[in-house]
Amino acid sequence: MRTWLHWGRYNVNRQYYGIEDLGMVKEQRDMLFAALKGLGRNNLHPKPNYRNHWRIRLDGKAMIFEGDFNDEDWTVDSMTNWLSQVFEVNPHTISASLASTGYGPTATFIRNGAKMRMIAFGGLLTSWQESHLKALAYLKANKLEWEIFEEL
Predict the structure, then answer these.
(1) In a domain, 3, yes or no
(2) Are the beta carbons of 105 and 118 closer than 8 angstroms?
(3) Number of folded domains in the chain?
(4) Residue numbers of the domain that contains 118
(5) In terms of CB atoms within 10 Å, which end of the chain has fewer, N or C?
(6) Separation CA 118–CA 76 (nearest Å)
(7) Through-space distance between the first and last CA atoms of the chain, rounded to whole angstroms
């Protein structure tokens, strides 16, 4: 079952996404993470769980975040255009390869070698509950990297 919320003229869906650095320099990664923290359609909501919020992996090279997003904002084309704006490069110089994992679909964005992997936990057209469960399964399978000491 799809969990859609409606805020103003936007249809939004609370979901979990992950980003992993595959070869950026620290300045690029910092720029990317700062831009990701600003995403979301409902960041002024009085309930914090509706705002975009995140957790950064211990090594600082990956981030999982949850918020209200339009599914259209997470297509390969939309992400390619967004990344080109963040890094001020021509979008035609960025390519992507797609894969499927047990946690959800991934896209690896490439410019002069692999730079970033994105995962939509549970998939783009899934419920918040399914996305949440897939994100928890991923964290459980990668406890040490994410400093998870208690059972999820």
Answers:
(1) no
(2) no
(3) 1
(4) 11-144
(5) N
(6) 10
(7) 23
